[in-house]
Predict the 3D structure of the following.
Amino acid sequence: MLLDAKINALQSFFDDLYLSLRSEMFTALKKYKKDIEEANKSKLLKGIDTEGKSLGRYKNFEYKQRFTPVDLKLTGDFHNSIKAEFSKTDFVIEAIDFKTKFLEKKYGENIVGISDVELLELVDLELPPIMQKLKNDISNTIR
């Protein structure tokens, strides 16, 4: 029974550590909100989705006076509606323009967001100071 209590205490400690790390990370990533939104818009202007795949070509040249890139920008309403929202343990990038569902159906769900690689690059920037803070917190808890 004593062993079970120790194991449960360790599990609780690591669960709390995980939640603390996740919370610290999303708090740190908030400062990149505008960068994340602009990265998404920049990709669209180049005619690629969040994973780097082409959005294709316009069927009618007269529509934009070109066939490529498909940039999903006519009035700017869709691009301007792309927002990154953060909570304590997660974040979401969404477009709230009324055309979003139509555009996602036509061009795929990856028109809004950032790639896993881009997210990991941001995490890599923020992880060292967060890890140091958590190490200090653990050291202070153990003492």
Notes: The mean pLDDT is 92.
